[in-house]
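Note to self: the last two entries modelled the partners one at a time, which told us nothing about the interface. This time every component goes in together.
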Amino acid sequence: MNRASYTAARLLQIVPTFILIGIVVFVLVRILPGGPVAALLGDKASDEAIERITRQLGLDAPILVQFWRFLETIARGDLGDSIAYHVAVVRLIAERLPVTLLLTGMATIFAIALAVPLAFVAAVTQNRWPDLAIRGAFQVGLSSPIFYVGLILLTVFAGAMHIFPVGGYGETPGEHLYHLFLPALALALSFSAVIMRSLRASVIEVLSAEFVDFARAKGLRRRIVLGRHVLRNALISTVALIGLQIGDLLGGAVITESVFAVPGVGRLMVDSIFARDYPVIQGLTLALAVLVSLVFLATDLVQMALDPRVAK
Amino acid sequence: MTAIALSHVRAWRIPAPLLAGVLILCGMLVAALVPGAIAPYDPIAFDYAALLQPPSLAHPFGTDNFGRDVLSRTIFATGVDLQIAFFATIAPLVVGTLVGLFIGFYGGLADAIFAQVVNLVMTFPFLVIVIAIVAVLGPGLENMYVAVSIVGWVFYARLTRAEVHVQRQSDYVAAARVLGYARSRILFRHILPNTLRPILVFWMTDMSLKILLGSSLGYLGLGAQPPTAEWGVLIADGKAYFPAGWWMAVFPGGVIVLCGIGFSLTGDGLADLLDVKR
Amino acid sequence: MTPAPILTISGLSVSFATPHGIVRAVDGLDLAIGAGEVLGLVGESGSGKSVTLRAVLRLLRRNAAITGRIDWRGQELLTAPERRLRDVRGGEIAMIFQEPMTALNPVLSIGLQIEETLAAHTDLGAAGRRRRAIELLSRVGIASAAARLDDYPHQFSGGMRQRVMIAIALAGAPKLLLADEPTTALDVTIQDQILKLLRELAGDLGMAMVLVTHDLGIVAETCDRVAVMYAGRICEAGPVASVFAAPRHAYTLALLRSVPSGGPARQPLDPIPGQPPRADRPIVGCPFAPRCGFATGACRTTRPPLEAVTPDRVAACFEAARLPAWREAA
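The predicted structure of the combined assembly is written out below.
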């Protein structure tokens, strides 16, 4: 299979994935006790109100008809209206998603910037003190809840030292970066621990590969051996790992946004639960799953670019 | 002879990190089982004469806004969080292992369907789907267990399935087949015990992740509900008094980190001891 | 007549610190390679052949302890600074490995893997390096070399990959090529082609070569001289024809008897009884003594020194004089 057809095949796979995501969200809302009506009205609704809403939502139609209508409205880009905000769910998500994307993007950059050099140092000093110190520090990071890290960062850098704002998002792009710095750092910490662990292991594995000996036998500088031969091979498996972590990263964003009062989709999700804003929860679940599957797709394509063996 | 004897001893000495991990977890277990025996104060007794006291000899973790001893509250919360670790993982472990065992052993269509299920589950951010389910079921620990279990079994099943595939290729399973053992005997007597080693190691990691998840949901108000003293809830309580009353949040958080380290050290140690590749 | 040596290894010992204790791989090894000569280094697996080659270029891992002397054209390599060592590696002494699939980097094009050696050891610019890379690939017998520069290792067959590795080794115009079982992983027909190519290149370029192998047939066909290794030591060394005709070490004789000769007269094979000595215990006397039919008391207590037995041969065997010629022995 050549690269073009591999890419095309991978792109086509996204279609059934989207449909399956639709099915899960559709089923999820309907199999749970009470279903969407109870979610909308709460437990104490009158029979009359239940009947009205049931008709209004088309829940009296056969299940397959309901599913078809569900897909149809989604395909039109219609996720219904928010009960709490009285605006289209799509508009709410469109307003808030860029905030979350910026937050997770910054967190990813921080995490990589932190993890890659330290993983390298840890791997080449395997089981000696720099390695043990780095692994110990990341172990603490891995065991720390995000909201706890966030609170501490907030206290030290916003509360005591006044270097960063206590939360919010600001108005200008520059302010956005400034406001999201601490939240992104909190989100990056456990993510970087995951990357560090994986990259350290693959660097150690690659270092024992024979092509590294061959590269040294060629008289290459250590910098070239490590940068070109070791890092590139070690990164291939780590890129896949970074891509697979997107789900956890978005989950972390939900918590981070709540701690730092960042107006992204994560905070919207938590607010919507307390407001019983069921269309928003359904729309967000759907949107985030689609986002994750797109990131998986991008990961596969990046991996193909890095590793010539993927598409023979 | 001495060389052999010594190397034998060395191989069976418990490594220090594993020992440290097990000790941490044992301490947590004692705090969970008999909190009253080690907590210096009644965790719910108000003391208006000692509101928001910073850490001291009398109150090592300080007191909260009602004058309650933070150390005692943290100790009493241990039981709740260890329960979360256990109940949020035990159903996924049992169900996932059995499903993975059968899928891995019999393969075929079930295997193909399972691969799709895994892909699908991976596309839903874990916390988001758990929150979505909790949203419909309502906040609280029991509903959180249900939500986590609906998704969590997949990870155990995937791990078991992969391990069964490895075991199926092994010589002893081939030998058992040649000997004419019944398939169920091969499955439960030979394959299951070997697949349990990586499952045990993963369970340690999973329990610490579920404590993080449980305390996060508690912090957001979606997990344990006040007045249940749960570590995440304690931190949420303390947030209002941050940073002046920093001890209210910092100490319970430190205990979460310690507990996570305990699970990690134990898991890593077990992986080395049982020769599990991660 | 042996040419003046360009590489002289004396008293080389290599041991590894492992979780199970110290393991000795090379144990007081002496060996000399003449300019332009093709030397076969033979021995069973585990006898220390590969470790010896890697020790020459200091490619061993951190847990290896190396002592002894490695004299490369008047310069001591074991103590040479890293900068100088980089010039020697690839530029003066090149090395090729047994398994080209693992020795070539899977994610870099072969063009880049040749050109980086050229960048390290020549003053060629980018265009010059590319031209030279194409020449080298053509030289080792890769068809339409220019079109294949951007291909990756997995796109070549096993034999072609080995040719690519040889081209990379030649890029720095080395005076000595260390070849670590370069044909073991290949089909028999391909083996012959690669060996012919190596032999031809050594002759054309005036390059000396150490060919590590466990195959005595390859030594007979390809090499000028042979050195036989056992338990990290050289048993004997000398011109191939004379060593094979009349071994001066009991192990060489046993080795020759244990493999098919390929000659017209079919002789019964005679496997060597017993096992090589354990590498984690010190060896007293001759390491081969426990398996040797000629061993006497001295063999078990005193290490036999490696001494000249004829002007162009050395051997480390107390009972050398009692050994029959190989063909007669059968």
